[in-house]
Amino acid sequence: GTDPVEFRLRHLKDARAREVIERVAKAARWAPGEKGDGTRGRGLGFARYKNRSAYCAVIAEVEVGEALRVKRVVAAVDAGEAINPDGLRNQIEGGIVQAISWTLKEQVLWDRDRVLSRSWESYPILRFDETPDVEVLILSRPGEPALGVGECAAGPTAAAVANALFKAMGVRARDLPLTPERIARAME
Question: What share of the chain is helix, strand, coil (3-state, %, to 5)?
Fold first, then answer.
């Protein structure tokens, strides 16, 4: 029952980790102890990329209908001195969208003998009309070494979406992608 933002802030000693969580929570207007309503929820994900590169915190807002849909994402990233802030923002936005696609849709299907997902028609990905609103906060630190960004948004985004599903419905679906069938199985 502990609030996820409060839990992390209570246990993290790294000031930069704490700051990205505090900044994303403020930007997303996180309310400690907020509850989902059975169809909507918000969740938090956080990681330091490869334990030595960029810090990234993500809050995702989801809506559950016929399928799980991500409506809004707010992210905060600390990659040291932001040499190219626009490129950094683009990298994080793209990573968030790709991670949502992995989390909700992407899977290779196969039978006993072969891969069945052999074309874009048989391999589902997130469509443009399914892309959520994304806001990225860059915590630039002039004078600090630039940190690798790479795929720093991938893990926190997937975690934020799964945690938002839990907040919305009270179900921990642990197998990706989070398809309606897998969510239903997790509810059993």
Answer: 40, 20, 40
pTM attached to this predicted model: 0.94
133, β-bridge pairs:
72
Domains defined along the chain, listed by start: 4-102+130-177 (3.30.365.10)
Mean pLDDT per 10-residue segment, the chain (188 residues):
95 97 99 93 96 94 96 98 96 98 93 88 91 98 92 97 97 94 93
**Closest listed residue to residue 57, CA positions, set 3, 11, 96:** 96
Per the structure block, which two tokens stand in for 131? Answer: 């892309």
Residue found under tokens 């809050």? 59
